[in-house]
Amino acid sequence: MAAPLDIYAGPTAMTALKRHGFYPLLFKYFLGASGGPKWFVLTGLDRVIFPEWFQRRGGQVQVIGSSAGAFRAACFVQHDPLRAINKLAHSYANTTYPKKTNEFDISRSAKKIINNMLGGDGIMDVLTNERFKLHVVIAKCHGMMENQGRLAQLGGLTMAASANTINRRYLQQQFTRYIFSAPKSKFEINDPYNLETERLEFGYNNVKDVLLASGSIPVIMRGVEHIVDAPVGVYRDGGIIDYHFDLSFGPEPGLVLYPHFYPRPITGWFDKGLKKRWPHASSYANTVMLVPSAEFVNSLPFSKIPDRKDFKKMDDKTRISYWETVIQESDKLGEYFMKITEDQSIVDLIKPLPFECLPSPKINELSAV
Fold first, then answer.
1. What mean pLDDT value characterizes the chain?
2. Residues 6 or more apart from 26 whose CB is under 8 A from it?
3. Calpha distance 235→138 (Å, rounded)
4. Count of domains observed in the chain
5. pLDDT score of 368
6. Average pLDDT of the segment spanning 297-307
7. Are 196 and 253 in contact (CB under 8 A)?
8. pLDDT band at 365, cuts 50/70/90?
9. Is residue 89 a contact partner of residue 44, using CB atoms and an 8 Å limit?
10. How confident is the model at residue 360 (pLDDT cuts 50, 70, 90)?
11. In this structure, how many other beta carbons lie within 10 angstroms of the beta carbon of residue 369?
């Protein structure tokens, strides 16, 4: 039977793992990508990596996420990450909407999911966890994207997509990256595109709004306004800028663990159709990707992983049954990961990254914030 999981590593990560073995202490960073319900296929990995694997050896881990990846990241930093991820998976998978739904309905639903996932103690866990530090990416809007009206947003998105096609740096005309970090974090990013980035800190009164903003898809949901301790403005989905990430991290040297639903990351939301917009080599040199194998995906209902289109293509009963089946089947990934890391056979299974990379920019071109 084919393995359910493929393991890929950048060249620096490959060298380190071949030399030292595949151990938690080598990993200083963890990434959670945007992608809506696609993350259900990773639930089995989420159920073991923080609840079990990282618990075996100490060391601080910076947990970075955008959109749905931010929701997952907020689970991992809680005192009981397994309980949190199970609550998130259940509430997300069982979400239903009225036939004539609107952006208010979807935003209210997202708030309920966040409230359920955080429970009574989740906010304090975000603020006080000394081992696992949360970092959430959101996008502050400018120009037409500040407007809550549908037509204005569609116009802003069209302008942003066109500008991004010319040069990713032009996203700054419509958006600024904001990163909210847990207190007492030592965390830097290096962005090969030098996009303007602002850093702010989580406080008790802004955790929920930041998470909501990070998942607030333009047009589909309301932008989040009046985030406590943040500049006045409208904030939306962090995946607009950092969909699957093209960043490297510091200041601590260490590897990046990145469970991902696809074998190729897409830099930003507007880069989905840009086949030649590869990530930079500098961003993935230290990265290890855990990706469901093609054979595993083909074994799932409909031979695919979930996505937001399922809301329109399937009735609620069919969709929920399908999503819950994927969540259940994903446990095979977690079980396999624990087995091959326990006996260290994972080291012989690691393959080079399966995608091209752009040349690394010169050091003085990087933006450290």
1. 95
2. 16, 17, 20, 254, 255
3. 7
4. 1
5. 34
6. 97
7. no
8. very low
9. no
10. confident
11. 14
Query: Tokens at residue 299, please?
Result: 């074994």
Q: What is the mean pLDDT of residues 335-343?
A: 98
Q: Round to whole Å and give the CA distance between 289 and 270.
A: 22
Q: Which helix (H) or strand (E) holds 188?
A: strand 188-191
- Average pLDDT over every residue of 202-223: 97
Mean pLDDT of 183-201: 96
Domain that holds residue 27: 5-368
* Packed helices 103-118 and 68-76: angle between N→C axes, nearest 10 degrees: 10
Distances from the Cα of 206 to the Cαs of 40, 111, 118, 120, 194, in angstroms? 26, 13, 13, 15, 27
d(CA 212, CA 223): 9
Residue 362 has what pLDDT? 66
Q: Which amino acid belongs to residue 313?
A: K
Residue with the two structure tokens 């695919």: 304
Place of tokens 């090969």: 192
Residue among 227, 181, 189, 220 at smallest CA distance from 36: 220
> Alpha helix locations (H) across 302-356?
310-313, 316-329, 331-342, 346-349
Quote the tokens at residue 360.
């690394």
CA-derived radius of gyration, the chain: 19
Tell me the C-alpha distance between 17 and 32, whole Å. 21
What predicted TM-score, i.e. pTM, was given to this entire model?
0.95
Alpha carbon distance 356, 265 (integer Å): 11
Amino acid identity at 53: W
